[in-house]
């Protein structure tokens, strides 16, 4: 089982792409009499830990829902703290991602983020272009429906301009999404006790296996991830077909 100091074996039986809705930071803090923002700080550290664990066991992509287009409605100081944590995370990532062999991509409307964050996102994109390896996708100012509408608009514009002539297919439509070129998630995990998708990767999760747990995100350890992977491995994925 996982041990922080011992590098786990890289395995071939793990999902290639795992998606996680980071939920439960606020409740985790409340249970300890701490401000909600303390939960986000621990949640952000936990993202680093789980991402490195995923990389080590052979997952190719990890996509997390960190800030939705609806999360701006939260109290100002909470939004500010989340932006500050993201700033800090990306700053640190710029120094370590190449060493850690961890590519990074942001899914979402980056133009709506504070300028300092936009600069950091551009820098991490640039660094990620230099090498191959495990990729973490962080959804920021992201909404699944908005992603679909934007993709449809971009296709329509390209078609009207004569830049594309071939008919629209599921494959070509996927090229207009933030996740272009990335395989769909095999496993979607939602910690925090809720059992809904909350406008996350609506197109990409068409055939994902869902795993829900009451464990709050800051407590979601590599052991919890292993439980989710074990459940995933026990599922019978038929993609609409029947078993041979
Ligand atoms: C949901 O928990 C969590 C968020 C809306 C913020 C997630 C952000 C981070 C973990 C910080 C930075 C992230 C990265 C990837 C570096 P909640 O506040 O809705 O929890 P609750 O349901 O218990 O209130």
Total of domains: 1
Q: Assign the structural class, choosing from mainly alpha, mainly beta, alpha/beta, alpha+beta, or little secondary structure.
A: alpha/beta
Number of helices: 7
Low-confidence residue ranges: none
Q: Might you state the CATH topology name? A: Undecaprenyl pyrophosphate synthetase
Strands of the widest sheet, in order across it, are 3-4-2-1-5-6
Q: For this structure, what is the CATH homologous superfamily? A: Decaprenyl diphosphate synthase-like
Proportion of β residues? Answer: 5-15%
Mean pLDDT: 94
Run of helices and strands: EHHEHEHEHHEEH
- Main beta sheet: strand number and arrangement? 6 strands, parallel
SSE order and pairing:
Blueprint: E1 17-21, H1 25-31, H2 36-57, E2 61-68, H3 76-100, E3 102-107, H4 115-128, E4 134-142, H5 144-160, H6 170-174, E5 187-190, E6 209-212, H7 222-234
Parallel strand pairs: 1-2, 1-5, 2-4, 3-4, 5-6
Bound molecules: farnesyl diphosphate.
What does this structure look like?
With 244 residues, the chain is of the alpha/beta class. The protein has one domain (14-143, 184-234): 3-Layer(aba) Sandwich (Undecaprenyl pyrophosphate synthetase). It is 42% helix and 15% strand. It is built from 7 helices and 6 strands. It has a 6-stranded parallel β-sheet, with helices on both faces. Strand 3, helix 4 and strand 4 (134-142) form a beta-alpha-beta unit. It is globular and about 60 Å long. It starts with 16 loop residues before the first strand and ends in a 10-residue tail after the last helix. The structure holds farnesyl diphosphate. Farnesyl diphosphate is lined by residues 22-27, 40, 43-44, 47, 64, 66-67, 71, 82, 85-86, 89, 138, 192. Farnesyl diphosphate binds at residues 22-27, 40, 43-44, 47, 64, 66-67, 71, 82, 85-86, 89, 138, 192.
